[in-house]
């Protein structure tokens, strides 16, 4: 059987400052993908840059959104709906990033968003992760609770369109990523929770790690049972991001 491809997602957040820079990042990433065969990449720029970089989309580079709204149309000032995205070749969407959760997004809203993304035929990159770590392992039940609530009533047939990004909130935007053995523990634990909900078909769901992933730590991170990474800061430099992609490609 062919080995599933690894996945590297770049979350640009509210960057860069202008369209020219956005186009440059996208074209640098595209150039760096020449010899990449076993890894797929998703670029998640702010909405306003999506139409301009949607021509980067290919069989190995996908365009993703960082969030959207679950209603398809209507009186929702300032929102963009998931259904408006595929016309710009958007195939993936982050949902439940901790920076959205910090602005009050509840598991109930996230569940509606997950449901809307998969019913529009896109792939959801569901972000989960604890705010703090404790000595009693409460972070495990916290993450379990998020997964259970966020995937409520999401059917088994949507599993092909589901990716889980585990991002411990305290490791996002920090100086170091989480320790390898802890990443490993969480990757196994999340797979177990998914199995509990969906049975064996859940084994195909990719698990990513996110939180201060960079060129220096990527090779070690990939030794810990994850199928890829979600990168913030280091996805804004096409060359550094390219090196991360290369390291993922070379990982076992
Ligand atoms: P970081 O961000 O790589 O800058 O820590 C990761 C994220 O928020 O997805």
Number of E-type strands: 8
CATH topology: TIM Barrel
Uncertain regions spanning at least 5 consecutive residues: none
Q: CATH homologous superfamily - what is it? A: Aldolase class I
Radius of gyration: 17 Å
The helical percent reads 25-40%
Question: What class would the helix/strand composition place it in?
Answer: alpha/beta
**Strand portion:** 15-25%
The CATH level-2 architecture is identified as Alpha-Beta Barrel
Q: Specify the biggest β-sheet.
A: 8 strands, parallel, barrel
Number of domains: 1
Biggest β-sheet: strands ordered side by side in the sheet: 1-2-3-4-5-6-7-8
> Can you tell me the overall shape?
globular
- Topology order in helix (H) and strand (E) letters: EHEHEEHHEHEHEHEH
Bound molecules: 2-phosphoglycolic acid
Helices, by number, come to: 8
Mean pLDDT: 96
Terminal CA distance: 16 Å
């Amino acid at each position: 059987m062919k080995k599933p491809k690894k996945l590297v997602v770049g979350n640009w957040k509210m960057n860069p400052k202008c369209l020219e820079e956005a186009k440059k990042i996208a074209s640098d990433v595209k150039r760096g993908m020449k010899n990449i065969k076993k890894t797929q990449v998703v670029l998640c720029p702010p909405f306003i840059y999506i139409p301009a970089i949607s021509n980067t989309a290919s069989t190995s580079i996908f365009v993703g959104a960082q969030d959207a709204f679950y209603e398809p149309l209507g009186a929702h000032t300032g929102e963009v709906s998931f259904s408006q995205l595929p016309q710009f070749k958007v195939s993936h969407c982050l949902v439940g990033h901790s920076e959205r959760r910090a602005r009050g997004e509840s598991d109930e809203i996230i569940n509606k968003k997950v449901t809307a993304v998969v019913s529009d035929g896109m792939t959801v990159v569901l972000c989960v992760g604890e705010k703090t770590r404790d000595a009693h392992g409460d972070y495990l039940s916290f993450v379990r609770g998020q997964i259970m609530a966020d995937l409520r009533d999401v059917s088994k047939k949507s599993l092909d369109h589901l990716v889980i990004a585990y991002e411990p909130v305290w490791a996002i935007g920090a100086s170091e990523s989480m320790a390898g053995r802890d990443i490993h523990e969480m990757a196994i634990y999340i797979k177990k929770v998914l199995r509990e909900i969906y049975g064996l078909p859940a084994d195909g769901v990719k698990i990513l790690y996110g939180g201060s992933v960079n060129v220096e730590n990527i090779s070690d991170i990939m030794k810990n049972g994850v199928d890829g990474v979600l990168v913030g800061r280091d996805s804004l430099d096409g060359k550094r991001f390219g090196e991360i992609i290369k390291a993922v490609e070379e990982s076992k």
